[in-house]
């Protein structure tokens, strides 16, 4: 009797689940801290100047995150020790969170935040590259689906640490540190990924010095994510203000609940889309579809006049954006040209997460006061449409 041919080797489910939890640890580290705990701390130190001071923190923090992602990614490439850098980054991230109460003035707090951003990216950069080292291409869709848990757990952790009566201001910081450790330590202690040497061998293009590897997929993926991230950053920062412009009676709690609902619903949908991409060997198609749906949501938001229509159109946008960004993170690992500088290149891709924070405020200031949110949403829809075109015309990946 002829034995059936064995399928392609797969990374263990145990490691993928532990890795997904560790990736969520990054969101748990920054979502509660940057959205709630840091602004509260800044108000206590700066008083009426808290908004300006928070702007300085955001600006210098984004620069530190950008530099840290590239630098520590490069170091982990050179040392070939992802686990060690993740562990060191975890330790320093928690230590600097606990050091926040020691700041007695704004400059000291800014210095701590810059150090914290560097430490966080010391952890996240090598962690992202670790997946590229050991998750084969035919599982990168599933990997992207698991990464959808990160924003959802980040939102859940934010709600948890701010429960009334659970902990004081300093205790909340310690609680965040504990949650991050619980999320990241299991993969460091118990993660035993199967080895896939082919993932870390130079491609055929590197074997022939005079034959450069085509850069088009890398550039297309980078630009598409940047364009989508600009839209996502704008909605993250100004969603409540837009809802309030439609119905002044809406509360911040109601907005937060809708935001959490979107992130939660997106998780199973991202998993299904990722598994479909793996089974049909169509890694880019779900990205293009999600981006197209996202455009529809933005256009609907631009023409929404009632609160129900506004909420519904945002749900369409938010779910599509979460699916896109999660799956994109997994499929990006397919297009990076050289395994020996994978983490450094991922650090360059991480600029698509930080650069929008510098671009988005100027777009909003330029458009919303004179033309309203509908003009902003139509411009963001145009940006996202370019991302759809970039992905739709992208050569099919192997």
List the helices and strands and how they pair.
Layout: H1 13-46, H2 50-79, H3 82-99, H4 106-134, H5 140-147, H6 149-161, H7 169-190, H8 204-207, H9 216-246, H10 252-280, H11 285-302, H12 307-335, H13 342-349, H14 351-371, H15 373-392
3D architecture notes:
- This protein is mainly α and 398 residues long.
- It has 2 domains: 13-135 and 149-190, Growth Hormone, Chain: A (Up-down Bundle); 216-392, Up-down Bundle (Growth Hormone, Chain: A), CATH 1.20.1250.
- The protein is built from 15 helices and no strands.
- It has helices at residues 13-46, 50-79, 82-99, 106-134, 140-147, 149-161, 169-190, 204-207, 216-246, 252-280, 285-302, 307-335, 342-349, 351-371, 373-392.
- Helix 2 packs parallel to helix 4 (106-134) and helix 3 runs antiparallel to helix 7 (169-190).
- The longest helix is centred in the first third of the chain and has 34 residues, at 13-46.
- Mean pLDDT is 87; it is low at 1-5 and 204-214.
